Amino acid sequence: MSVVREPAAERVVVIGAGPVGQTGALLLARWGIPVTVLDARPGRDLIGSKSICQQRDVLDVWEAVGAGRQIADEGVTWERARTYYRDKELFCLTFAERGRSAFPPFVNISQSRTEEILDERIAATPLIDVRWAHEVVGIAQDDDGVTVTCRTPDGERVLRAPYVLACAGSKGDAVRQMLGLNFEGRSFDDHFLICDIRADLGAWANERRFYFDPEWNPGRQVLIHPCPDSTYRIDWQVPGDFDLEEQRRSGALDRRIRQIVGDRPYEVVWSSVYRFHARLVDRMRVGRVLVAGDCAHIVAPFGARGLNSGVQDVENAAWKLAFVLRGWASPELLATYDVERRAAAAENIAVTSSTMDFLVPQSEAAWQRRREVLERALTDPRARAEVDSGRLAEPFWYVDSPLTTPHPTRVFTGRPPRGQTPPVVPGVLVPDAPINVPGSPDVGRLREIARDGVLVLTTGDPAVAEAAATAVTRAPVRALAIADIDPSGLLAEALDARPGEAFVIRPDGHLAAVVAHDDAPALSTAVARLLGQPAAWPSDQPA
Ligand SMILES: Cc1cc2nc3c(=O)[nH]c(=O)nc-3n(C[C@H](O)[C@H](O)[C@H](O)COP(=O)(O)OP(=O)(O)OC[C@H]3O[C@@H](n4cnc5c(N)ncnc54)[C@H](O)[C@@H]3O)c2cc1C
Predict the structure, then answer these.
(1) What is the largest CA-CA distance in the chain?
(2) Mean pLDDT of the 369-389 span
(3) Residues with CB under 6 A from ligand 1
């Protein structure tokens, strides 16, 4: 068999052309980094759909690579989540946001279509080279880089790159093994039957409905999501021995669907049965390899925390890899990828596991508690907070990150209850707001300029902020006076900006620090710290 050794190149190799690998490649290319994407499959196979529900901050990341608006426009917007017990509505949630996002809280669109749209962006990006039928069978590292060996139909191919982003998905056991990773966790007993059906269900078209114990699935639940093209995702909790083929043959599947759609005509677009798991790798960075998406963590989909968090992984990885490769930050910055994203994954696992414990109780006592909570929630509004059909995805807050400078009064006191806006404290994703685009008559959005480098928004003199930031980095820095870009006052309101403050924002839009606008040393230290310069970390943080 032939072996082709390619010359070393200053690129990042991305393993996996799933949506996380696709997004990672696009984000790296946006920073000017060449990328080679390797996937074992012979090509894109758009069968079925897993993820449907994409969160607004993820749409915003996709917009940074030219795909967010299209995904949002093609998807179904929903702003309400209704929860029922038997035939009674318990509550209806809407989603609060501090600031004014350009995107709705959630849109539903099939993962297949999202992948197609991302493929179109990749095809229009000369810095990305996608290679299908390249199965990664070897990963070796030394002080200078990574050697990746692939099996292809034409023989073996060996690539060399300074860094690798591993996005090999939940089935990427081989990649996890090559990296020596554990993927510990738990699996949940019940199975879930998922059908995407096409039908005209009228008023159901713009809201998510979650039914506990409906008479058509007693003791279990059913989740219904609207999707584009009059398609609905119906997700039934079913016993572990559920047999989809037998249900199709016997007509039981048709009867099940008819219980929801009545005698309207319908068509099954896709169906599958899943068992859900909660697993997390023991490290998300192994030397020069950063591990992202389902390759690093898998969760039950209630709350839509799978792909949404995978996109946030690669956003975190992409700016850090780019800054190191461009010489704007030292390689120590990469250690913080593991710190920040494993904390995010652990939170997602805790949240989704607690949902699964409510949905699939593991003991008679837990079943009894579930029944008692649901009964009480019919009349007692306080019990409704205990009804857990999934806490919907939200960005992780890097409040405890070594890159974040704590503030004496803007302090994290825990996530606010569902439906309430989070406070602006160092570590959060900055709220979006309309701004006057600097140097142009156009009105734009804060998030559009937040991802171009280090951004300082100040209530004082931007020249002071710029000098303080550029004193410690050669990375792109932009310092702007809030008053100059915020004629409507909506930005200051969204940031809850007080006189004398300056906001230091990371290249992924997270707030790194709020310091006094005229304290140049504090500004310099905050910028150095967000770039992972160990000298800027307090002595209790690991270098
Ligand atoms: C029923 C269901 C519903 C879901 N709903 C939602 C939702 O509403 N919202 C949400 O955010 N998430 C949802 N998810 C989760 C979402 O589908 C996943 O998080 C997402 O697919 C992860 O993408 P990925 O790119 O990490 O992995 P994948 O999509 O699995 O892609 C991995 C890629 O790596 C390639 N690969 C693997 N091994 C190798 C190798 N050795 N060499 C080369 N290539 C390799 C594979 O061929 C594949 O193309 C849902 C999941 C399920 C099952």
Answers:
(1) 75
(2) 92
(3) 15-21, 38-41, 50-53, 111, 135-136, 167-172, 174-175, 194, 274, 293-295, 301, 304, 306-308, 310
